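Structure in, sequence out. Go:
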């Protein structure tokens, strides 16, 4: 696995094809926007594009181009830092620093602070569309964590100003959507867009990363915000341990977003005690295993509750986040068995596939954003 990690992470060019390539084309964007506005009218053209991408163009990638993604750089840096802590190989630390230099040079522009986003236009609903220069609360924490971990491991302070700029992003660009005396929900992007549970948990975790360098009034303010963000995540957990992706609209319950919420709770609680968090995490983890783990294949499924059809049977992103979560929670038996299953189902030599479709075919080879890098990051913690 270490060979696989270095093969993908220790290089300067991290441009990649992506499962969203079809939806980044002008035609794909228009059809997705049509589907969001008029689902019945958009269903057939969206299905045709999906089948073309999966069955005809998955390997050839006609009309698409490779692209750099900030989250890929962040995951690569974090993975290399994990390896460096184990073997002390200086080249790994140097590559991690180069990925961070790239991130420092490519934040979204025109905002008060530093944030990173998808880098392509993304139509979520008919009312919410993110542009390619829109920083997101779900992407930015990975870059932030990479800067913070690099500082901790190397003692190199050259990115301290970037970390401070990320703090401004969460303080001044991310919006408060709801707040009362005990809870707070923040926006997904830098405007009043929507409430998404994993985005609230990301804001909570991001604030926890600032605690180590905070003191006085700033520390007190950060602790209050963490407590309120946690309060909202806790309040929205269902009795069975699940979270809908959003408490608004026609939502869904899927694996990797559920894992992300639990991961952010676990990591935040290591920096700041959270009342009742062990019970919240325990119920959420049991829900995942009970409702999304396919015992026959020992892989996690996409959805417990779906809101649209899909041709995907198993997705690497779900299993990468489940693997990461199992290790965070100390569930070594599940982590070891899941890693073995993921490796046999999704990996072939130096190739890693991101999806297995309904006919059992492996799709989306070596697509770093979704989900080679999340998988390698999980592996880097045990490699």
């Amino acid at each position: 696995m270490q060979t696989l990690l270095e093969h993908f992470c220790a290089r300067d060019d991290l441009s990649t094809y992506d499962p969203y390539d079809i939806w980044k084309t002008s035609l794909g964007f228009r059809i997705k926007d049509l589907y969001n506005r008029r689902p019945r009218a958009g269903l057939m053209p969206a299905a045709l594009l999906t089948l073309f991408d999966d069955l005809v163009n998955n390997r050839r990638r006609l009309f698409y181009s490779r692209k750099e993604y900030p989250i890929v750089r962040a995951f690569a840096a974090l993975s290399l830092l994990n390896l460096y802590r184990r073997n002390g190989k200086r080249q790994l630390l140097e590559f991690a620093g180069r990925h961070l230099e790239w991130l420092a040079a490519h934040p979204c522009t025109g905002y008060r602070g530093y944030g990173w986003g998808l880098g392509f236009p993304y139509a979520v609903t008919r009312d919410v569309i993110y542009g390619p220069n829109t920083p997101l609360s779900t992407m930015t924490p990975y870059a932030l964590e990479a800067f913070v971990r690099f500082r901790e491991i190397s003692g190199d302070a050259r990115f301290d100003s970037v970390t401070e700029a990320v703090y401004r992003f969460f303080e001044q660009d991310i919006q408060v959507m709801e707040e009362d005396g005990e809870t707070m929900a923040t926006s997904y992007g830098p405007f009043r867009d929507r409430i998404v549970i994993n985005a609230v948990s990301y804001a909570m975790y991001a604030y926890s990363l600032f605690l180590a360098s905070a003191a006085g009034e700033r520390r007190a303010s950060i602790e209050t915000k963490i407590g309120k963000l946690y309060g909202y995540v806790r309040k929205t957990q269902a009795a069975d341990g699940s979270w809908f992706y959003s408490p608004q609209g026609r939502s869904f319950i899927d694996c990797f977003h559920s894992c992300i919420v639990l991961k952010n709770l676990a990591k935040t609680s290591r920096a700041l005690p959270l009342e009742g968090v062990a019970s919240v995490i325990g119920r959420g983890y049991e829900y995942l295993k009970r409702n999304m783990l396919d015992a026959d294949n020992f892989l996690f499924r996409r959805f417990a509750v779906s809101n649209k059809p899909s041709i995907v049977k198993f997705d690497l992103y779900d299993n990468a986040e489940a693997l990461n979560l199992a290790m965070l929670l100390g569930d070594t038996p599940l982590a070891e068995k899941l890693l073995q299953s993921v490796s046999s189902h999704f990996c072939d030599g130096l190739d890693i596939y991101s999806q297995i479709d309904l006919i059992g075919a492996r799709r989306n080879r070596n697509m770093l954003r979704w989900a080679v890098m999340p998988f390698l990051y999980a592996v880097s913690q045990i490699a």
